């Protein structure tokens, strides 16, 4: 498929080069330094209407160096992690540091916070797959979807498989590295009736290839999702309950995490500034992260500052319990890092879960949203307005598909108005959640 990828050898090589960059930065006058290096290799296959469209074999590498001279910071990077580029990158970072302003918050995370527990988190599972086998799987996925009655054509199926190594080291003496893999298969199909054409897709994604759905199952699921959208119309306008399908409910979690991220907070660009300890969700709802969960999509024993990751609770029984902070953003806010340089890892919800049927019954009359469009979210005010598609619900039952409407509200009001979470968990990404039932939003249709 591609040239052999020896992850252990690549890991050792990157560690050696990271240490060389640290040593060189110290000799050239840096007071402190941190280095990130990575190498990734993979294959991407796309097919359409039974023909192969693209076969992409990739191999990417890079190194990034940040130096600190007093409270001045300079960063430089290169797509070449070879020995020859290390000196150029370090010298460039030092030159930049000479021209930057002083920033008392800059610098490495405290040495005492560096990760000491570096277990194997079971996230590296390469797929021994030839290019021909990858093409066969993508074609089988598409064929299964195209074979469903009512499907008009295909927008393609894609398979990707990759593995890589990342290394982080700093002048505290910390050196951490991790190997990882990620595989996915997706299919997008088109259906048509007298009312027009509809398009939808489905996908599977996992660290280990054995955890992927069968190609035929992905294609057939994509076909069912596409066919159910035929005959869509605009919904009535009014204030109605909205049920967010798990595939879009994760986005609401993402908006929350963006609002409690340190960068947004110290810039005063979040509607959740200075809100720690205040009620934000119903008392039955909690949200946290589990970065050391074995085999999960975002597991890591250390963050991008080298700080030991830990289980964090961001929402505790409805109250905002913690922000999401790196060493830098924590200093800007006068707080302590939460080990979240680079973001949250493996977000998990603790709440009483209800079936989809129970949530629909509780809704009574409203809309089930399965697709969102546009970027209408204001992080400063929390105002939320998105184009949507999904299904009309009447008497607790799905009646017909709907499209070309807008749902609007405010994130704080939506969080406080959370009426239920479903047991239909979507576990394909780093955010695991089921459906979210929000008690009331403005739905603007026909």
From TrEMBL:
Gene3D superfamilies referenced in this protein's UniProt entry, alphabetically: PmbA/TldD superfamily
Domain Metalloprotease TldD/E C-terminal, chain residue ranges per copy: 237-445
Keywords: Hydrolase, Metalloprotease, Protease
UniProt GO MF annotations: metallopeptidase activity
Class of the enzyme per the UniProt entry, highest EC level: hydrolase
Residue ranges occupied by any Metalloprotease TldD/E central domain in the UniProt entry: 125-230
All copies of domain Metalloprotease TldD/E N-terminal, residue ranges: 33-97
The enzyme's E.C. designation: 3.4.24.-
Keyword hit for Protease: yes
SUPFAM superfamilies: Putative modulator of DNA gyrase, PmbA/TldD (SSF111283)
InterPro entries named in the record: Metalloprtase-TldD/E_C, Metalloprtase-TldD/E_cen_dom, Metalloprtase-TldD/E_N, PmbA, TldD/PmbA_N, TldD/PmbA_sf
Keyword Nucleotide-binding assigned: no
One Pfam family in the UniProt entry: PmbA_TldD_2nd
Family membership: Belongs to the peptidase U62 family.
Name of the protein this chain belongs to: Metalloprotease PmbA
Name of the gene encoding the protein in the UniProt record: pmbA
């Amino acid at each position: 498929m591609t040239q052999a990828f020896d992850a252990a050898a690549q890991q050792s090589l990157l560690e050696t080069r990271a240490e060389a960059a640290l040593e060189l930065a110290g000799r050239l006058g840096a007071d402190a330094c941190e280095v990130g290096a990575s190498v990734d290799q993979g294959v991407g296959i796309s097919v359409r209407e039974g023909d192969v469209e693209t076969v992409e074999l990739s191999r990417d590498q890079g190194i990034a160096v940040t130096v600190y001279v007093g409270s001045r910071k300079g960063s430089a990077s290169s797509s070449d992690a070879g020995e020859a580029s290390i000196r150029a990158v370090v010298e460039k970072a030092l030159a930049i540091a000479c021209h930057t302003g002083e920033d008392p918050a800059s610098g490495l995370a405290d040495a005492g916070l560096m990760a000491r527990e570096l277990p194997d988190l079971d996230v590296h599972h390469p797929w021994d797959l030839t290019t021909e086998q990858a093409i066969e799987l993508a074609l089988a996925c598409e064929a299964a979807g195209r074979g469903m009655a009512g499907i008009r054509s295909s927008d393609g199926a894609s398979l990707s498989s990759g593995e890589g190594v990342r290394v982080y080291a700093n002048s505290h003496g910390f050196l951490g590295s991790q190997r990882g893999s990620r595989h996915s298969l997706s299919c997008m199909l088109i259906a048509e009736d007298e009312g027009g054409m509809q398009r939808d897709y489905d996908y599977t994604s996992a660290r280990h290839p054995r955890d992927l759905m069968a190609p035929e199952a992905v294609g057939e699921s994509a076909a069912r999702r596409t066919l159910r959208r035929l005959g869509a119309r605009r919904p009535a306008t009014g204030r109605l309950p909205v049920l967010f399908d798990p595939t879009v409910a994760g986005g609401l979690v993402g908006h929350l995490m963006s609002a409690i991220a340190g960068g947004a907070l110290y810039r005063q660009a979040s509607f959740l500034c200075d809100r720690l300890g205040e009620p934000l969700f119903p008392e039955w709802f909690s949200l946290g992260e589990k970065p050391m969960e074995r085999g999960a999509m975002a597991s890591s024993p250390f963050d991008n500052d080298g700080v030991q990751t830990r289980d964090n609770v961001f929402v505790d029984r409805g109250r905002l319990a913690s922000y999401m902070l790196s060493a830098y953003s924590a200093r800007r806010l006068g707080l302590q890092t939460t080990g979240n340089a680079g973001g949250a890892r493996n977000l998990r919800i603790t709440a009483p879960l209800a079936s989809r049927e129970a949530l629909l019954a509780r809704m009574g009359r409203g809309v089930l949203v399965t697709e969102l469009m546009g970027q209408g979210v204001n992080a400063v005010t929390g105002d939320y307005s998105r184009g949507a598609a999904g299904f009309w619900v009447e008497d607790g039952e799905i009646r017909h598909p709907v499209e070309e409407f807008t749902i609007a509200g405010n994130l704080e009001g939506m969080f406080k108005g959370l009426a239920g979470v479903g047991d239909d968990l979507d576990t394909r990404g780093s955010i695991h959640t089921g459906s979210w039932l929000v008690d009331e939003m403005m739905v603007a249709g026909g």
